[in-house]
Structure formats: C-alpha cells, structure tokens
Amino acid sequence: MSGALPPVAPLVVRWQAEHGRSSLPWQRTRDPYRVWLSEIMLQQTQVATVLDYYARFLARFPDVHALAAAPQDDVLALWSGLGYYSRARNLHRCAQQVVQVHGGRFPATVAELSALPGIGRSTAGAIAAFCFGQRAPILDANVRRVLTRLLGFDGDLAQAAQERALWQHAQDLLPTQQLDDAMPRYTQGMMDLGAMVCQPRQPRCEACPLQAHCVARAKGTPEQYPVRTRKLVRKAQAWWLLQLQDAQGQVWLERRPERGIWAGLYSLPVFEEREALMAWLEGAQAQLQQEHPSMLHVLTHRDLYLHRVVATVAQPPAMPVPGGWYDLAETAALGLAAPVRKLLQSGAA
Ligand code: SF4
Predict the structure, then answer these.
(1) Spatial CB neighbours of 115, under 8 Å, sequence gap ≥ 6
(2) Does ligand 1 come within 6 angstroms of the Cβ of 149?
(3) Relative to the CA of 146, which ligand 1 atom is closest?
(4) N or C: which terminus of the chain carries fewer CB neighbours within 10 A?
C-alpha cells in the first residue's frame, strides 16, 4: 500500500446508522460494565451464543460490585460452556480491581483500561470508544480483515512491526469530529462490516460503503488479506477420565490446577495413559464397569480425545488428586469443564 489514507470514517458512520446492527443488548447502553462484559464474552464466541450468557450474567451480577464480591466458583459455573476459562477468571479479577483500585468505576483511557486483567488493547479501545467517545481504535479479527483489504496492506501480521503499522493506520483512520457520537458508531460500523459484509470468504463488496476506496477490491484479491505466515500447529492428545462412583452413587471430582487446560474448573480425574488408570483401579480395588468410545474436544491448539472410564468402589479409597465426592445432581452447580459436564449428563454409566 502507498499514499494518503482514504477518508472513510464518515462512510462507515453513515453506513452503520442505516445498515448496521442496532438491537444487540449491549448496544443499548454506554455503561462500561455491560460493554466490557459483552466484549469479553464476544472474544472467540459467536453473538448468538453470547446473548443467553450475557442475560444470565447480568441477572446474577447486575453490576461490577456484585461480580467482584462473588465466589470464583459461581463465576466459573455461570461461564461453563463458553470455553476459554481464563476469560472468566480474568473477568472476576478485573471486577475486583475496578472496585479496589478505581472505586467501582471503569477508567476511561486505553492505558488504564489495558492495565486491568484480561483487557487487551482492542478491548480497551472498544470500551473507550463505546462508553467514553475516545478516539481509540480496535483491531479484532474482523476489523483487521476490513482494514488490510481496504488499504491493500500486505505486511505479514505475524511480524510485530507490521502489526504496529496496522494499529497506526487504524488510529489514523478514526473520525475526527463529533467524537461522542461518531466514535461509538464508527467502532460498531467496523465490527459490523467485518461480520456482515467483508467476510473471510466471498466478501459482499457490492454492498460495502468502502468499495470505491478498497485496494483489494480493485485488484480483485480480497481473500488474499490479511497476510499472516505463522500457522497454528495443532497437536492431538488423549486423556482418560475416571468416573469413579462410590456405593451411594456419588462421583469423585478433582479441582484442576490453576494453570493449563480447564484451569481451576472441576473435572473427573485425568490420566494421560490408559495403563496408569488401570493400574490405579487395581490398587484401589475398584471394579471397572465400562469404557466408553472417545469423544473429541477441540481446543485452540490441540485436539483432545476424551475417554470416559466408569468404575465403582465399595469403600472410598485414597484418591490420586485432591477433590471431593459429589451427587450427580449437585454437579450442575459446580464450575465444571464443559466436556465433563456433557459426559456426566450423557449418563451415569
Ligand atoms: Fe471488504 Fe470488499 Fe469492502 Fe473491500 S470492498 S472492504 S474487500 S467488502
């Protein structure tokens, strides 16, 4: 790309007013708590899924004080099923910091917002723009795609210098007038364009307000942007999950460590090898009841094959990991890892 940046902000603002989304619940507010909650939930999760969770969260935690005061288990339990649980833990810590450090009011600047747990530069930009009319850019995956295509930006975004250059362009393209109205609308407009028009495959250029300025469209190569060379390396891993039941039908659940997969959530005890599980069953004098076919659980960087093994014991033995015995009915209220919840709901044996 070369030359001056095209003056697109007024086009985006006008298009958003006429064609953009306006009925999502977090669009009807400038309350930073609500905007922040929606932004965190929308990271890596579709709007349709977030709608339910957002309503439930707000019913249970109507403001930042309520969230900060809640036990972490309650927050994780409500988050269960949304995935990426580090988001929920950071959400909770962030609420506590907003209360302790900022007296319960979210700060208005990108610098202060991004110092809070779980708030990256783009999320900070969204909160600053939506709630405070700040001239702050966002650069999530949707906006990255729109901007690189519009500008014909072919720098490799795996390189930090290129990523920085794109942030600078995002900053320079922002509205310059009537920021209190224009910034929320422009920010929403860029998100909407990425989600509704400039889609990864077959963008709808004929419906795009930026078409007259768009370098990628003129070249006929929108799908070649954005450029990013680093490829995700996926790994496959197998876990054996022990569903051990005592004479009362209670099941043993472990609390996962604070780091790694399902950190801080409840799970059936995990064994990385079938032999290790079988050896443990023998030592504990447990009766193997059933081995279920594996279930695939897809994580960001790996495919996890989960094998559920059901066994029973007459006397509770010393367990391999810290945890507790729970009635199956009780487990619904725990912060369970979502696939474990699914496995437990799929049958007691
Ligand atoms: Fe995307 Fe096409 Fe619009 Fe360019 S003209 S920003 S490629 S939808």
Answers:
(1) none
(2) yes
(3) 6
(4) C
